[in-house]
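To whoever is covering the structure queue this week,

Two jobs came back overnight. Logging them here so there's a record in the thread.

Job A:
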Amino acid sequence: MTLDDWLARLASAASDRVTLDTALAAELAAALGVAEAELLVTLQDSLDFHAGSAAAHEIRSGTGKVDRAAVFGAITATVLRHLGAGVLPAGVASRLFSLERAEVTATGLVLHGTVPPGPDPAAPAEVAARLAQAAHGGEIVLRPDGGPREIRVVCRAPVSGPKVFISYSHDDDGHKEAVRTLAELLVRNGIDVDLDQWTGAGRQDWQAWATSLISGAAFVLIIASPAYRRVGDGLVKTNENRGTQAESATLRDLLHRDRHAWTAKLLPVVLPGRSVDDIPLFLQPYCADHYHLTELSDAGAEDLLRTLTGQPRYVRPALGAVPHLPPRSLPRPPGRP
């Protein structure tokens, strides 16, 4: 299972924050092949770097909140120590290896991440060189203290993800939070997302903002919901859902102008708890693809992630040679020459 799923089972709060209890610390320490006290020190260092809001006694007692970045930072710093990097600050460790996904297996951990290009002056040269070499399609296998558990570090060079705009209606606060959770999930997976909730303070011309970003996006995600369906199908009054009306009108116009190009760029997304019936009819909910997320996790969004990053689930094999199949002769009847 992925570390995200593992942490989610122990979560006591929403989004990326989990309660770090002693059981989680013990399991992490065992998987990493280090003493639990050592891991707690590293976690505290990561917390100081990322948030600085939890005290050491809160970590030990299991009452402190630890964000995902802090846990990943602790794992990265610990693994780099196994590589011979010594004790590195969390910020330096994260610059050396950006951990994206961790799988907990029966034999240890499998860590997937990227190695940024260029040397880091604060990083040990030998460790940086080893990571850079592995980034060209390789991995590093570690066995802490020669024990039975192994840590596999799967490296790759960073890839710039596609530009994505999210179009959705503000049905209610729960729907807005679910859309933001999806956007955060995509960003963690290298997708460059534009979302209205992240525009910050200040007056905004929302129509100009949306039109500009839609025009420059590689994909536009249309989040299905009852309100968006009504707007997209033209079933609301002109003074209702004005922002969604403007966006959906722009999308309909772009689709009508170049149906081939924009059919591939407009991706209807059905969040958990929603239905394909919430997709507007102009997006062809029943005869074109849509993306139904089973849950707001990497696994639940796999089909969407594959489409956004151009990584199909199955690849057609290479064309083989045509076999030689000579004709078969029928057996002759008895007594005939």
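Job B:
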Amino acid sequence: MLDTDFFRHWMTATAAAMDREADRLTELDAAIGDADHGNNMRRGFAAVDDVLEKETPETPGAVLTLTGRCLISTVGGASGPLYGTLLRRTGKALGEAREVTREQLAEALGAGLAAVAQLGGAKAGDKTMLDALLPAVDGLSASFGQAREAAREGALATVPLRAHKGRASYLGERSIGHQDPGAASAALLVEALAEAAGTGDGS
């Protein structure tokens, strides 16, 4: 069972990953976006780290809801609303349960992804964060490790795609050949989840 401490660990592990990989995310974004994705994600999850130190959400759902609110208020561009919506809606779907199963988390994340798709008007293959997260949620139904690998593969699979959403879509054919930065950061979120579950070492 996954308790509140697990979800706090997931968010702090995500913050560490975003800080560590910020330069790479910004480099990816420089090719097809505003060159600010890494800094935005680092700033947003650093704020999450701070708020989780000051506040004590009592349920897994409350951890994610608080995280989502924090990201919406601190992350610039489209990333704040998208990540904020993902985590707030996932938290809402988890409800007031003190512990949840991996399968329940996968179902709740599915609800979060549906909200993101509705907000951004994106679908699989549009070269967005969904291309990493949709296969990850499918993988999570089997294991944390499969979710991590599916997210990594999904992010890499955005390289040959043409962007149909976001700033990258303005580039048309020139967006082909570049990894989507949102998919890359989404893969970090899932890798942090696997780390929190104790499978971040490749198991």
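Note for Job B: The chain has one domain: 2-196.

Please reply-all if you pick these up so we don't duplicate work.
Q.
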